[in-house]
Each structure stands twice: as C-alpha cells, then as structure tokens.
Amino acid sequence: MPIPSQLLPFLLAAAVVAAEAHLILPAFAEHQGREEQEQQQAVVERPGCQDMCGNISIPFPFGMGKPRCFLPGFKVTCDTSSSNRPRLFLAYNISGPFQRTSALNHTSTKGGTGSGGNTNAVELMDISVADNEARVYIGVSSDCSTNGSRHFLAKFQDIVLGDDGPFLLSATHNVLIGVGSNVESMMVTSFGERGKETKAYMPSCLSNLMRRLQYATDGTCSGLGCCLAALPPNAPPLTNFGVGFMPRPNYLWKTNPCFYGMLAEKSRYNFSTHDLNGIEVLYPEGVPVVLDFAIRNLGWCPPEGQQQPPGYACVSSNSTCVNTTRGNDYVCKCLEHYHGNPYITDGCHGWKAMTVHAKQE
Ligand SMILES: *[C@@H]1O[C@H](CO)[C@@H](O)[C@H](O)[C@H]1NC(C)=O
Ligand SMILES: *[C@@H]1O[C@H](CO)[C@@H](O)[C@H](O)[C@H]1NC(C)=O
Ligand SMILES: *[C@@H]1O[C@H](CO)[C@@H](O)[C@H](O)[C@H]1NC(C)=O
Ligand SMILES: *[C@@H]1O[C@H](CO)[C@@H](O)[C@H](O)[C@H]1NC(C)=O
Ligand SMILES: *[C@@H]1O[C@H](CO)[C@@H](O)[C@H](O)[C@H]1NC(C)=O
Ligand SMILES: *[C@@H]1O[C@H](CO)[C@@H](O)[C@H](O)[C@H]1NC(C)=O
Ligand SMILES: *[C@@H]1O[C@H](CO)[C@@H](O)[C@H](O)[C@H]1NC(C)=O
C-alpha cells in the first residue's frame, strides 16, 4: 500500500531522532506477572547471577551484572530507585532496544514541528523461556485537538528493537488498536532511518462514532470508539515500528480531546468507554506487548548427528534446538514432558513445579 502523501510529513516529523533523555515514568499500576513466576522451585539463572528483580523472575539467557550472566542482547537492568517497586528493563543500547516518544505540534495536515524524541529503555513485565517470549510495556501514541479545526498536539511512540538484536514483535499475540471518536490509527514500520528504504507496512483501523459517544460499548472493539487490526502472520520481521494516525477531525474535542493508538497484547486489552477520556492515565507505564526472542547471530541448530557450534545455547540435557523462520537464529526448548529452562545446565526437569497452572493462551 502506498503511503498517502499527506501522511508523510506527519510520520516523518515524528521520526526525528534527538537527544537521549531517560524519561522516568510514574509507576503505580499494579504489576501482573506471568504465572510461570510462581513456579519458584526451579532454578532459572546461572549460579551466582541475580535471578529476580522485585517479583520478576530473570531466567537465563536474560541477566545482569557479569557478562557470564547473560547472552549478547539479553542484558537487563533492575531499577530499584522507585519507591513503588523494582522495575526491570532491557538494557538500553543506541542501536536498540529502546522506545522513543516524539511530541508533535502541528496546526494543519501538512505536518508540523517535532520536539525530537525522548528515548528510554523498554520496561519488561515478565519473561517466559518456555515460550521464548518476553512481555514489555510500550507507550500509547496520541493525537489531541485543542479546537475544532485541525490543531493537534500529538505524541508519537515508536520502538527500535534493533536489526541485530534477539527481539521481534510477535505478530500473533499483538494487535493494532485505535481508541477515539473518529480515529484512524496505523502501524508504521519504516522511518527511513540511516537512509534505509525499507517498505512501510501499515495495517490500520478506523473507529468513527459519528459524533455519538453513546454508541461506544464496554468490552466491544469493533469500530465504535475502539478499533482493532490483526498483524498478518507473514509480516516481515518487525524490529522497528510505531503507531501513528491519519489526520481526521475531532468533532468531540471539547469533551474528548484525544485519539489514541497502540500496539497491545490482544488478550489483555478490554475496551472501556473510560478509555475515550484518557488512556494514558490508565496505563502510565504503557500497555503490555509480547516480543518473541531467539538466539541470534550465534549460528543455528546443528543438523542431526553433527557437532554443536561454539557457544551453542541449548545446554540443558533433554532440551532441543529449533531453527526459527527468520533465519540465522534459533530457540531452545525442553523436550516433551520436560519443563524448565533449556538455556542452563540441567535446566529441563522431568517434574512439574509444585503449583500447576493452566496455560493462558
Ligand atoms: C510482590 O508481589 C506481591 C503480591 O502481588 C506483593 O504483595 C509484593 O509487594 C510484591 N513485591 C515487590 C517487591 O514488588
Ligand atoms: C504548539 O505551538 C503553539 C503555536 O506555536 C504554541 O503556542 C504552543 O505552546 C505549542 N505547544 C506545545 C505543547 O509545544
Ligand atoms: C484553532 O487554534 C489555532 C491555534 O491555537 C488557531 O490559530 C485557530 O484559529 C483556531 N481555530 C478555530 C476554528 O478556532
Ligand atoms: C549494542 O548493540 C550492538 C548491535 O547489536 C552490539 O554490537 C553492541 O555490542 C551493543 N552495545 C552494548 C553496549 O551492549
Ligand atoms: C471486558 O469488560 C467488560 C466490562 O467493562 C466486562 O463485562 C467483560 O467481561 C470484560 N471482558 C473480558 C474478556 O475481560
Ligand atoms: C537449522 O538450519 C541450518 C541452516 O539452515 C541447517 O543446516 C540445519 O540442518 C537446521 N537444523 C535443524 C535441526 O533443522
Ligand atoms: C534426561 O532424560 C534422561 C532419559 O531420557 C534421563 O536419564 C536424565 O536424567 C534426564 N536429565 C535430566 C537433567 O533430567
């Protein structure tokens, strides 16, 4: 799909990379961890490495501190400075991962002035080595009107995971969401950075309430106050993406000045009409998004009977190696009937942890 020309300045202005500033967000939303965390009996980290950050388990290949405590790209940091709770982050790297927030102030559809971008580390919510997934918080983009004409103060949120990093946006767990009375939110995956002309791939969705807020219904996201678009499963690897908007007038700017757009884990987002009044307040850290991870640029799974490559990550007995479709990377899994962490010695056990939980998905 070609990029509509009037959209370009809006998106490009949003892509301004600027000074790094580590934004500290207030943290008061209650933390919901993955159920695996309660399976405390299993050892998840290499000996001598910190395996918890507050309530969040840090299974190898994730880790912090000494280089032997994590594999390349899996370094994390635990921020204990907040009075609320310790917070776990993917270690910030200039080539990713990081998230960037750009403020835009424009008075027409022809684009406007960008305030550059604040970049900050991506916060982790939980990690599952069994599924090779990590859940992170990602901020919400917004598009706010200060009067009936097109005068927007917008916040554009994008994520750079890094082309060489181990993380990808999960195309199966996440969806694009728009919240607003007349919003068309769209996912953008190319910002023309470093002169690279990668194809923009833009699922979008439209919500139009026809000026009637009463059409919006709690729990229903089907184009009235809330809209949702799936990501095609055959999408290219999604390492650099954000959510923007097609310019649309906000007829209800007096009562509901802002439109919102975000990527979110589908099963965790439930539309509420309150979201039309200000979704950022409800999700101060951002909304949960699932990332897939894999061991990247360290070879691939050895063909059967052949020697393991140096640095081979599937070190547990009773674990197996699975090549991913992206190429040049692989994941480790415990064999059937085994549970635990395939990335550490003797990490896969033939017993289940004390508490047995139903799988969420
Ligand atoms: C861990 O979780 C429990 C229960 O949810 C909570 O009461 C406790 O404050 C949490 N501790 C930290 C350090 O976050
Ligand atoms: C947006 O621009 C207007 C006009 O230049 C200015 O008065 C206003 O303070 C700006 N707002 C922000 C948030 O930068
Ligand atoms: C909307 O606000 C802008 C800037 O504050 C102003 O220039 C414009 O005249 C306003 N439009 C209307 C219709 O009030
Ligand atoms: C940042 O990422 C690049 C590319 O993945 C990597 O080569 C480099 O070592 C990383 N830097 C740090 C400080 O981790
Ligand atoms: C979503 O929220 C509505 C009320 O706002 C509730 O009735 C419904 O059960 C919720 N759905 C899910 C899947 O949580
Ligand atoms: C993984 O991919 C490599 C390179 O394509 C291939 O040589 C190898 O046989 C594959 N291993 C498995 C177990 O499929
Ligand atoms: C792996 O499985 C074999 C049997 O297939 C068993 O003898 C061995 O103890 C297992 N290893 C671990 C670490 O559980």
From TrEMBL:
One of its GO terms (cellular component) is membrane. Residues 1-21 form the signal peptide. Coiled coil: none annotated. Residues 49-90 form the Wall-associated receptor kinase galacturonan-binding domain. It is found in: Membrane. The keyword Phosphoprotein does not apply. GO terms for molecular function: polysaccharide binding. The keyword Signal applies. InterPro entries: WAK_GUB. Pfam families: GUB_WAK_bind. It is a single-pass membrane protein. Keywords: Signal. PANTHER family: OSJNBA0016N04.9 PROTEIN (PTHR33491). This is Wall-associated receptor kinase galacturonan-binding domain-containing protein.
